[in-house]
């Protein structure tokens, strides 16, 4: 399916085994090269109308030129960028930037882990409150709060909530030990994800025998995954709702979502008509986010991943500023 096309019709049905829209093979953007941006015909028409005058009209919300320009500037500076957004109601592609390329996505890949956990808990409700111990082998620094708590054991459902809320690394490793990395990979394959995967447990340091990244993902597949979760069509409505509930606890609004004006610690209900569910991934030289944003006028599913040489604070802040600019376009579209 070429960039710019609508979301695959399978996203309207139960998707276990049906999978995300297929994508042609694409090469990563070279450092210093402008990314391949594929606005839809609708977006191009709106851009032409916008250039005829400076007065803001109802069609201006379809113009993602600021986001295109911001991502283009990042690419010129050597940032590898992949991004995509679709309208939730129509499936129309709003923008796409090298969206079929697999990118490092850090803890964003734990969304598939949460799907596997939710499916198991749906089949075995008694497992929700089963206590699971943390072990020395699970220990890892970085994001999350469990490593700072005294309690040595937690229920499986609470561990999933910690992963959704803070990308808790320790909780991630304990859940992976419980369900198995192979089961998570099989779940991704059953969903039809070929460019998105959780590759390993969380590690403080990666050696030559370890996977080079915690996870990888393509913006095309991640957008499809979040949109289909929001539509209640991943595994079934109950499983989708459970995963969305965990992700709605997310406290990281530092990337695309920094433009939405929401309270990072409390945004499970609409605020000024805006409702967000998102997941993020952060590592050295990696910033990634996928989410669903709803507003009074529309809803969108989006995903963006960036990889850059994280050598200076100025360079990192430029990436964050570009992601925020893209978020401002998304907010204008839905609000």
Automatic annotation (TrEMBL):
Feature: compositional bias, Basic residues: 46-56
Ranges where the record places region Disordered: 1-64
InterPro entries linked to this entry: Beta-lactam/transpept-like, Beta-lactam_cat, Beta-lactam_class-A
SUPFAM superfamilies: beta-lactamase/transpeptidase-like
GO molecular function: beta-lactamase activity
A Pfam family hit: Beta-lactamase2
Beta-lactamase class A catalytic domain segment(s): 85-305
Membrane-traversing stretches: none
GO biological process: beta-lactam antibiotic catabolic process; response to antibiotic
Keywords: Hydrolase
PANTHER family for the chain: BETA-LACTAMASE, BETA-LACTAMASE-TYPE TRANSPEPTIDASE FOLD CONTAINING PROTEIN
Name the UniProt record assigns to this protein: Serine hydrolase
Organism: Rathayibacter tanaceti
